[in-house]
Every structure is written in structure tokens, then in C-alpha cells.
Amino acid sequence: MRNKTLKIGFIYFHGLGDNVLTLESLYALKAIYHCELFVFGNALFKNLLAYYEFVDEVYDIQNDIQSHLDLINDCKLDYVILPKCTKAYLTPLLQSNVPIIITPTKIQALFSKKCKTPSIFSFLKYRNASMREKPLFLVRLINPKLFDSCILQIDLSQAKIRTSITHQDQISHFLQKNTKKDHLILINPFAITSSHNLSIEAYLHLMYQVSMLPSCTPLVITYAKVSKEFQEALEDFQKKTEFSLLVFENNEDILNLAELILRTTCVISPSTGIIHLASNLLIPTIGLYPLSHIPQWETRDRRYVFIQSPKDQIKPKEEKQIISQTIQTLKTLLNLSS
Asked: What letter would DSSP give residue 38?
């Protein structure tokens, strides 16, 4: 008699960086347990997973577990993994027909027979893990022995984001019209949730200096909420200092962003979703990071220029030093002489 195929749900509805950092865990679930994999997320996560073959179903439940209990019950899941556990998420899920809910260690979870959490002995290890490692830690709890025997044998690079031919053609068309240089350097000034960042004017100075490097074109990807403000700042800057810059205004399709990142030589960004997207796609990055973000939000290649002051306190002198260090780091990456 054949073993029953496990049905595993993964509930997660957060920002771009958070979602990207769970992708290796989703691949590990499928590769190790050969399960049917159901993801319950938000519209962004559904967009991100649109062309993954190893995810069986993706549902946009709009951050609302309670209103989607019938959907969750209909899937007849054996396990649900809930990487970010709050009372608002866990309470309705405990009413579901899912027999085992795997969550971080929380008081409500500890007192529920349905919940499986990291042991007391591994609690500190879990708490200190990065945002990429934490969901993998929970994936292991389904069958630790099987996980440990398989995890080093599977190719987690298979979790790279996939785009469609439509995305590929659209970005190819955009680049053919707009750039002829060898190195496209994506510089991302936008990080609403990051505590440490440079001013827009400092980023414009950085873009100007990148444009002066041999065969380099700076690229900025804007979106509706920031496009007007950035364009106004750019126009003011170029009245004094004209330079070549490529601007792509994206819609809400995150896969346009992914496909464009795939065409870049390097991504320079603060601690936000774009840099984790680049890491997932194996594109070299330079993170403009506060030191405190490294343990939780590390990048794949761990190449950083550190920002000491919060963005509301940073001074022009510190920004100038960061720009200088970033340019030097980029030159080293491109193998350019100083």
C-alpha cells in the first residue's frame, strides 16, 4: 500500500522581502516531503509564485484567516505552517480541521494540543536565526530525521523566482530602446519601512557617480507612490548636474521587477524587499545597511556599506562617506581600477 501524500499548507501574508525569504522553505517542503503544497497569502505573494511548478495552489486570503476557514478546511491539510504567529492569526486557525499547526513558540501555541513549536532547547537558536532560516526551522519540525538527511542534498537555488515570456519580452523591449552599455546598476532609494537610509539627493549623487564609471548605466525602478516625488527631485538635480539615468516605472506586477533585476550587474539598495529579490535571483548586491539588520536580514553575498545614523538624523558628511565607500565597493566588484 502506498504512503499517503501529505497535504501541507503555508500561511504567510507580508511584504516583498519577507515573502521572498520564505521561497527556499517552500521548495524544501516539496523536495523533502513530496507533498501537495498549498500557500495562503496576499496578492503580492500570489503574484510572486505565479510561475512556480512546485507550489500546487496559491490563494490570496487578504490577511484574513477567519473569513477563509472554509477554504482552508476544504483543502483537508495534514499540517499548516504559520511562520509569523499572532493571536489574531492563530485563534481562528485553531478552529479549523487542520490536525497539526506548526508555529514559533508563543504562549497560546504552547497550551494547544494542535500546535507544534520549536523545543525549549532550540528556542534561542530559532530566535537568533535569520528571516530566511526561521521558516526552514519550522519545515524541519514535520520530520526532523528526514529533513536532516535531505536538506544538504537538495538544490535550494531551484527556489529562484520565475517570470513569464511576457515579462521577458517586455523588459527586453524596454532595454533595447534605452541602454547600450555593458553594466546596468540598479540603485534603489525607496525603503519606507527601513529605519536607516540616505536622502533622495544623496542617491542622486550616487547615481551620478555610477554614471561616470566605464560602461555603467544607473537604473531606478519607480512605482506610483514614489514616481512623482522622485521625478521632481531628479529634474531639480539635473538643472545643476546632467547625467544619463534609466528610469523604469513599474506597475503592481512584481515579476517585471524580478525580470529587470535579472538583467542587472549589481543591485545597490537599503534593507528592503528589492535587495532580497536580487539575492534570490543570484544577482550581486551592495546593501546600505545598519549593522543591526545583518543577523535577521542578511543578503546572500553579505556585501555591505554600513549606515550609522537613522534616516531622520543622517548628516551630509556621513552620506558623502557612504557614497564614496559604495562607489569603491562597486569598482572592486566590477574589477575597475580606482
From this structure: E
